[in-house]
Write a structure and sequence with these properties.
The protein has 292 residues and is an alpha+beta fold. The protein has 8 helices and 13 strands. Bound molecules: flavin-adenine dinucleotide (FAD). Flavin-adenine dinucleotide binds next to strand 11.
Length: 292
């Protein structure tokens, strides 16, 4: 079972890449969070968009395709997170994508996620690339390669001019499976426990409080609870709290993530990470399709 607080991803602008500008402030498909006042920014609050729709934030984000840096993966593995070195995760990245540049040692040719060049090599973008190289920043032909340093043309999670979200890439192709129930507009309130064992969730749908329990499903509870365990980096603690309404106090983002939201308009690449994305990945990101 997949429970999603927001609606189906039927909003027209989700699927048109240019629609990014609309849904980034559209409360119909966006939680439109605000940070708590930031002590070191004169008490300012920051707007924190997050997808509230099938596909989550991948349905409203900037679609910049950035995998993450080799050194980060290797650092995690060295710190004891076995199975997360770059060489461990690379086969999954390859498996994920259908890259318009074709299959190669680093890219996939027949995965569910569509990745393509944005293809607007405008004069100003070319000038910017040339200027960067003039001051010694190397041209990088593939910022999702083994080296992310440099400047180059980024790719986007777009195929045939349409956004490739987690919902369109992964969910849509399996929507008809008899063992999958997708329930949008279902707001998970809390995880239900029997002793120390999570056995289900309580959620609100169409004005009524409902429960989904693992016993009704053939699949292990860890699958049933996947969504509440994965409600996004900003919101992830909410369903773990018990009764008493929303625990908004948890939503304060850490200063690093605020910094990323504020200074970088397009290139947040946290993936499913619970920690803010390393801002280093942004060095090479370049948005040729966004003209001032
Ligand atoms: C403005 C912006 C631009 C971005 N641009 C890019 C980019 O260009 N490239 C890139 O790689 N990354 C980008 N990102 C980051 C990327 O989109 C996210 O890191 C990624 O989508 C997070 O995935 P997630 O599964 O952790 O959470 P989400 O995608 O946010 O999914 C969480 C889902 O859980 C649902 N949910 C939450 N609480 C409940 C509840 N109680 N009950 C039921 N459902 C619930 C939410 O509605 C949501 O659908 C951007 C992010 C933002 C905010």
């Amino acid at each position: 079972m997949l429970l999603e607080a927001g609606p189906e991803d039927k909003n027209f602008w989700i699927h048109i890449p240019l629609g990014y500008g609309r849904n980034i402030v559209n409360p119909d498909v966006n939680w439109c969070f605000e940070s708590q006042p930031e002590e070191y920014c004169h008490g300012q609050k920051y707007f924190l968009p997050r997808g509230k729709v099938l596909g989550g934030t991948s349905s409203i984000n900037g679609m910049v395709y950035v995998r993450g840096q080799v050194e980060d993966f290797d650092g995690w593995a060295q710190a004891g997170c076995h199975g997360w070195s770059y060489d461990d995760v690379l086969p999954y990245f390859i498996k994920c994508e259908t890259n318009s540049r074709g299959a190669s040692a680093l890219h996939g040719g027949d995965g569910p996620l569509r990745v393509s060049d944005v293809g607007e090599e405008t004069a100003i973008n070319k000038a910017m690339l040339a200027a960067a190289q003039e001051i010694g920043i190397p041209f990088n032909p593939d910022i999702n390669g083994r080296v992310q340093d440099g400047i180059g043309w980024h790719q986007a999670s777009i195929g045939n001019g349409r956004r490739s979200s987690t919902a369109t890439a992964y969910l849509k192709p399996v929507r008809n499976r008899p063992n999958l129930v997708v329930q949008p507009e279902s707001l998970v309130r809390r995880v239900l426990f029997e002793g120390k064992r999570a056995v289900g969730v309580e959620y609100d749908r169409a004005g009524t409080r409902q429960e989904a329990r693992a016993a009704r499903c053939r699949h292990p509870v860890r699958w049933r609870l996947r969504l509440p365990a994965d409600t996004g980096a900003v919101r992830y603690r909410q369903p773990r709290t018990t009764a008493g309404g929303w625990a908004y106090r948890w939503y304060t983002p850490c200063p690093a993530s605020v910094k990323i939201c504020r200074t970088i308009s397009l290139s947040i690449c946290a993936g499913a990470s619970r920690t803010p994305a390393p801002s280093t990945t942004v060095r090479a990101a370049f948005a040729p399709w966004r003209r001032g």
